[in-house]
Please model this.
Amino acid sequence: MAILEMKVPSPGESISEVEIAQWLVADGDYVEKDQAIAEVDSDKATLELPAEQSGVITLKAQEGDTVKVGQVVCLIDTGAAKPAGSAPAKEVASPPVAAPLPKKEEAVVPNPNPVASYAAGTPSPAAAKLMDENNVKSTQIKATGKDGRITKNDVMNALSAGFDGNASTGWGGTRDTRREKMSMLRRKIAERLVAVKNETAMLTTFNEIDMKPVMELRAKYKDAFAKHHEVNLGFMSFFTKAVTEALKLYPAVNGQIDGNEMIFHDYADVGIAVSSPKGLMVPVVRNAEQMSLADIEREIKRLAIKARDGKITPEDMAGGTFTITNGGVFGSMLSTPIINPPQSAILGMHNIVERPVAVNGQVEIRPIMYVALSYDHRIIDGKESVGFLVKVKEMLEKPEKMLFGAKDPAEILLGL
Model:
């Protein structure tokens, strides 16, 4: 008998412990090499733990346990024979979960035949757990698994896309309550948000942007852009480009405080807040100041897909110098975003609404977006914060300025 001890690998620098979020296999299951056997939460991201070898697994930690990096969490008997007639590793599963899902206090009776076929619409164990946590019904999920089975990715895709607000959410008319342990990631986010409010002199300044020029430019070139660059042209790339140009003029907005010193960055690593089934993630677009609109769109798409699929890593979210968050995709009109430490500022985008505005002495209906810049007043003065936001506004209302930096094209022509 050859026993392999599987230890928790280091998810990244400065991370010393993780939490077992969920086991994707049951004790005694046969697992294949590289099969995902568990999800672990660090204080920065949720990561999958793959099996290092094929064999029968013995679990040495429970879901919810906090374990040290390097600690043994399971054993794999690599000498065990694969059960005859067993399904492929990705289809082998723990017992099917009937609807409605059992309460946490009730015991689930193991299925004596782990390779039996499943009825269409039955979730896998990992999918069932995610559905339970988010109060999602099987009728709300589009199944893509074998024989119409609901996979974990099906649930994550549905959560990312959102649900019809008229759909039944299961209000039962009872006064029951339930408790769920906060994940390590959620606890860390809570600690950081409280620390920001307590440890920074955070203020927010607002402005409004007439989105008509950008929308007309996008409508005119979006098809050609998508055909040439094989990626769609969205608003986020315009905002990211405008931000990087404004950061050149106002470096304090791109800086941070370290003790009694201020750190100024000669580059712009822009964090883009994206929604994922695990919560809000902020992957970083590195050296965004050197990227074209197409480069920015490609990188945002790549990072957003990783976040949606639960494959984002701590390295993807480390080291940002400035953050952009878009509450407008959820219908937000106005908000005061919270700074993402140790950064000193964050830009909040909101929904685009047609509003009456004065243009050359006439009232016109224009697509207007309210924007908000939250900043740390210890390093950024009011003049700089307002000037930064005005510059972003100017470049979005005159997109041609992005081709020439912060200057007007006529100024370039005249050598001014």
